[in-house]
């Protein structure tokens, strides 16, 4: 299930950044998403469990393999600094200057309120 994969990957990303309260809220939402896939009969339980495991594994793989100030980080920041079409200003990603994309994600997450 793509829904299970995406929701559990998001939960794992928050958990790996030690954001407990947000992780709990997102985990509850992910469980509801997974349950809804079963309840309305779109997926079998194995599909949902497989999707959840895939999401957790993918988030862990990214966390273990990603390094700040690497070529991949520089490439990602170049993509995020693209100018918004027709508005002449950069996306919110670009306002951190030389900081890494991880710093942008952490700053964005820190602004969320649950």
- Radius of gyration using CA atoms only: 17 Å
Q: What best-fitting shape do the alpha-carbon axes yield?
A: elongated
What is the rounded distance between the termini? 26 Å
Based on DSSP secondary structure assignment, what is the total number of beta strands? Answer: 0
The helix count comes to 5
The level of helicity is: 55-70%
Indicate the structural class. Answer: mainly alpha
Order of helices and strands: HHHHH
Taking the sheet with the most strands, its summary is: none
Strand-residue proportion? under 5%
- The mean pLDDT is 78
pLDDT < 50 runs, ≥5 residues: 83-99
Structure description:
- The protein has helices at residues 2-16, 20-39, 45-65, 71-80, 101-110.
- With 114 residues, the chain is an all-alpha fold.
- Helix 1 runs parallel beside helix 3.
- The longest helix has 21 residues, at 45-65.
- It starts with a helix and ends with a helix.
- The model is unreliable at 83-99 (pLDDT under 50).
